[in-house]
């Protein structure tokens, strides 16, 4: 029995079915392999903001959002440096204690020894960088596991924190000095916040357009002008809305500006330089990176140096909020929040996937929960429990994504 040839309508229906099916398969594959990037964190952030706004209408007030923009900076900086270590598939458990120690070192040098704040802060950051280099050398040169090195180092820096502070246990520095100004100064003129929004939007559009032209010229997949324009419009809407909210309170916080500049600068280094490509290459396979002639040991040491430096910077910003450094600083909670911020934002614990913007998104989620809990007058233990739950979900998703990637690679090689 002869089958009649398919009509034009039949062929069109088949193409439609295959198109929908292939589209859904591609979306599913992208979801399983972690290709959604920051989307899950953004969804969680929207849910958190919606819930707390319903429970307390002052949550999204200009004042609370401005304070939130400052509160994320200290821990966010620590998480940003940790992203570098996670990208090579390692961990740094010393960052919480190291940030507390370097902040105490700054306070003691300034208050007890009369060293100017700017110079004392610079010395504290240098010590953080040197400590990171030490951790990296022990890991990369001696072959000691990173969690063991940094766990021991964290205990050591916690002890040094108590020793440096001495019998008083607390050092109070000038609440109108250089470090205190970092989190208390705001650019009150509306042009500052709107100018930053315009700069962010314009830079993104130019960078995306240039990247699309490069990919088109090299024959690779590229984003259309319409897609770039749509993404730029969405980013611009968020940026200018944020600027409008900040201008309704005290304007653009200096701390938030510094944080965004550091995140953007480190992101450029990761995604647009040979050094950044070396970091990602190690996350995919250290052995492959070594065979490709990359400087594996140097890169390994450098990522711990970045982590130590940002830990010291984060410690200064955290101390700036209260103009006080104490021996009872919650360094363990700080470590957990930093790791959670990086992972919740989309950085993989297994290496090779993540961006510095992951830390910003993740800490925004965590600090939003903390801010909402404070407004509702709930205990901090509830906040820790919620953060732990979000982190557990992120870790499970990361693990499933890794298994899916291995499965796809095995299918492709079969």
Describe this structure as you would to a colleague:
By secondary structure, this protein is mainly α. The chain has helices spanning 8-32, 39-55, 62-87, 95-111, 117-142, 146-165, 178-184, 190-217, 225-247, 254-272, 274-284, 286-291, 296-320, 331-344, 356-376, 380-413; strands at residues 170-172, 186-187, 252-253, 324-326. Helix 3 (62-87) crosses helix 15 (356-376) and helix 10 (254-272) crosses helix 11 (274-284). It has a single domain (37-188, 250-400), classed as ABC transporter involved in vitamin B12 uptake, BtuC, CATH 1.10.3470. The strands form two sheets. It has a two-stranded antiparallel sheet.
What is the element layout, followed by pairings?
Layout: H1 8-32, H2 39-55, H3 62-87, H4 95-111, H5 117-142, H6 146-165, E1 170-172, H7 178-184, E2 186-187, H8 190-217, H9 225-247, E3 252-253, H10 254-272, H11 274-284, H12 286-291, H13 296-320, E4 324-326, H14 331-344, H15 356-376, H16 380-413
Antiparallel strand pairs: 1-4, 2-3
Helix pairs in contact: 2-15, 3-10, 3-13, 3-14, 3-15, 4-5, 4-6, 4-13, 4-14, 5-6, 5-13, 7-13, 8-9, 10-11, 11-13, 14-15, 14-16, 15-16
For the structure shown, list the relevant keywords.
414 residues; mainly alpha; ABC transporter involved in vitamin B12 uptake, BtuC; two-stranded antiparallel sheet; two-stranded antiparallel ribbon; 4 strands; globular
């Amino acid at each position: 029995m002869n089958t009649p040839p398919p009509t034009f309508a039949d062929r069109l229906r088949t193409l439609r079915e295959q198109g929908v099916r292939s589209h859904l398969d591609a979306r599913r594959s992208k979801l399983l392999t972690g290709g959604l990037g920051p989307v899950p964190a953004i969804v969680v952030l929207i849910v958190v903001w919606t819930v707390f706004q319903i429970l307390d209408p002052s949550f999204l007030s200009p004042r609370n959002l401005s304070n939130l923009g400052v509160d994320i900076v200290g821990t966010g900086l620590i998480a940003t440096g940790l992203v570098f270590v996670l990208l090579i598939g390692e961990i740094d458990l010393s960052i919480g204690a190291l940030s507390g120690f370097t902040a105490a070192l700054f306070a003691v040098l300034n208050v007890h020894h009369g060293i100017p704040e700017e110079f004392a802060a610079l010395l504290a950051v240098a010590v953080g960088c040197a400590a990171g280099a030490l951790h990296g050398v022990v890991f990369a040169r001696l072959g000691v596991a990173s969690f063991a090195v940094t766990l021991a180092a964290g205990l050591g820096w916690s002890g040094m924190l108590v020793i440096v502070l001495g019998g008083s246990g607390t050092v109070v520095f000038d609440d109108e000095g250089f470090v205190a100004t970092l989190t208390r100064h705001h650019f009150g003129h509306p042009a500052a916040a709107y100018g930053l929004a315009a700069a962010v939007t314009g830079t993104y559009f130019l960078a995306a357009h240039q990247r699309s032209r490069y990919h088109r010229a090299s024959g690779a997949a590229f984003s259309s002008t319409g897609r770039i324009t749509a993404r730029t419009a969405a980013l611009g809407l968020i940026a200018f809305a944020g600027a409008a909210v900040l201008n309704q309170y005290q304007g653009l916080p200096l701390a938030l500006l510094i944080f965004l500049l550091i995140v953007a600068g480190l992101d450029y280094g990761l995604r647009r330089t040979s050094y950044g490509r070396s970091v990602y290459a190690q996350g995919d396979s250290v052995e492959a990176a070594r065979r490709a002639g990359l400087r594996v040991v140097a890169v390994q040491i450098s990522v711990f140096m970045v982590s130590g430096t940002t830990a010291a910077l984060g410690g200064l910003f955290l101390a700036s909020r209260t103009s006080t450094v104490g021996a009872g600083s919650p360094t363990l909670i700080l470590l957990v929040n930093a790791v959670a911020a990086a992972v919740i934002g989309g950085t993989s614990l297994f290496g090779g996937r993540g961006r510095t913007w992951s830390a910003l998104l993740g800490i925004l989620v965590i600090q939003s929960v903390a801010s909402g809990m404070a407004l509702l007058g709930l205990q901090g233990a509830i906040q820790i429990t919620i953060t732990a739950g979000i982190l557990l979900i992120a870790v499970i998703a990361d693990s499933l994504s890794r298994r899916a990637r291995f499965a796809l690679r095995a299918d492709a090689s079969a």
